[in-house]
Amino acid sequence: MAEAAALTKPDADTEELTDGFNLIIDAMKLNGLTTIYGVPGIPITDFGRMAQAAGMRVLSFRHEQNAGYAAAIAGFLTKKPGVCLTVSAPGFLNGLTALAHATTNCYPMILISGSSEREIVDLQQGDYEEMDQLAVAKTMCKAAYRVLHAQDIGIAFARAIRAAVSGRPGGVYLDLPAKLFGQVMNAEKGRKSLVKVIDPAPAQIPSPDSIKRALDVLKSAKKPLIILGKGAAYAQADDAIKALVEKSGVPFLPMSMAKGLLPDTHPQCAGAARSTVLKDSDVVMMIGARLNWLLSHGKGKAWGDAPKKFIQVDIEPKEMDSNVEIAAPVVGDIGSCVAALSEAMGGSWTKAPADWMAAVTAKRDENVAKMAPRLMNNNNPMDYHGALGVLRTVIKERPDAILVNEGANTLDLTRGVIDMYRPRKRLDVGTWGVMGIGMGQCIAAAVETGKPVLAIEGDSAFGFSGMEVETICRYDLPVCIVVFNNDGIYRGTDVNKAGSDPATTVFVKGSRYDRMMEAFGGVGVNATTPDELKRAVNAAMDSGKPTLINAVIDPAAGSESGRIGNLNPQSKLKKK
Ligand code: OXT
Ligand code: ADP
Ligand code: MG
Questions:
Q1: With a threshold of 0.90, does the pTM exceed it?
Q2: Which of 276, 291, 367, 462 to mutate to test the pocket of ligand 1 (most atoms within 8 A of CB)?
Q3: Listing from the earlier edge strand, what are the strands of the sheet with 523-527?
Q4: Could you give the domains of the chain?
């Protein structure tokens, strides 16, 4: 043995070497992945240090789930996979919810987890944080890969990037066993093993037949409607979408995260006439939106009795006919599809019938007028509308700010009240209605865009990721969090009649979430009136200092599950 080592030594002294740590960093940088959201620990601690030393931005969180939500929304905002880095088993599992969320929402993301040694895991011999992570991850994402050899790192990253962003975007898992990081190889061979992914999300051009079919259906409509979903926002084809909508003269309904793709104040916006347009329309063109629960699966009471024809523009062919028949499927990327539709419409397209647009406008104006006085109240304790009336102006005056929003009443009322003016400025709970996305999304939004962030959070929703206020302070991010504190989930008024424990939906009364921010050097404010709220939010948005405003909301103001109470089963038996 000693002899063999002596023989190889001279080579090792002169040969330029690299290792797994460096190859991972090089593979990421080569492909423009320069920001990592994660939590350090065995076996990735040194990797984080080395990545930072190599000029990458490595943001260290307090819990992997929040880092994962940050990576997921970074993917949505940038069209590049957001990267989340975790330790093995428990860290991996903490990140997995976010990976599944990214996949469900069609956000490109890569979850990279260190893992224990294969030999020990496979024989179930009880390694440190032992878990067959690859097997667990497979069902939660678009693709999952494990890398055993340093020379495969380049290919693995290329595959992960391509899988995340091509076709329908989604989450990808990369399993990196501890031993891989330290594996040494010849540096030149290492460099050659890296892959720069060319055209990671190739354009997918729709067939001319599908474009013609779609326009024939649209032309036949008397009451057409365009529904814009977050896929349309993701596509970053903003000008082309605006051109198509305006040329068609068709009212458009933005799904929650598509608000602002065209301004909510646009004359064709039907956001404030939602029920009317769903019920009365005869042809519906979906652009980057799915007919899932958020659209009542395209059938039933919400859609009324008028017969409907659907046109669907989506990159995923399997999405067609998922819930109802799609009369005109247009499969391709939204940029290419929308451009092809516009071009085929030519210069003399007849706009949607004026009486239909007028009916939609009348309903919209009626709803807006009905809401207006409620937004101006200065009640103490505040209700949702009084508080949101103030915040609506904050966004109107700062249309470039990013709004992060979660909760039940806090979510649903904010969505309705606060108009958005620019694309990809509203980030929320997405397809699963998941609580906990808040602080991760705030951090990624600030980091990826450099814009100020306003988060409007239910007190329950905030609790899921609240510890990340320390992270916000540590990186000194321009984030203003408003916690709508109504003492509980939906309401703070429930009483447990059967014992001394509090009811399941209520929290400590009079909590002061603002003090959490103060604990870490940020600004905390307790606001009990819309006027106080307005002053505090404006100061925060102007200063860019991490701020948390505890907005005291009447505990009786909310309703169970916000606007989706119908989904919450209630026992028909007499309750004790
Ligand atoms: O057309 P009509 O007349 O019908 O009117 C509509 C619009 O036209 C009109 N409108 C307007 N009027 C005037 N002006 C303007 N500008 C305007 N804009 C619109 O308003 C109405 C309503 O419009 P909307 O909202 O568009 O329409 P609608 O019918 O509501 O739309 C249907 C939906 C389904 C598309 C929509 O409601 C929607 O997107 N909903 C999303 C709901 C959602 O995802 N909710 C979150 C989950 S709830 C629950 O699960 C919660 N949990 C459990 C839990 C979760 N989720 N996750 C995890 C990990 N663990 C547990 C928990 C714990 S919520 C929750 C916490 C809640 O407590 P908090 O303290 O956080 O929050 P509070 O409730 O505030 O206390
Ligand atoms: P929303 O919740 O806003 O209704 P969904 O998440 O349900 O939106 O739907 C988004 C849809 O957009 C998905 O079906 C997805 O396949 C599609 N999509 C995402 N990116 C693109 C793209 N670049 N081109 C075409 N379709 C896309
Ligand atoms: Mg609440």
A1: yes
A2: 367
A3: 426-428, 402-406, 453-458, 479-485, 547-552, 523-527
A4: 17-193 (3.40.50.970), 208-361 (3.40.50.1220), 377-564 (3.40.50.970)
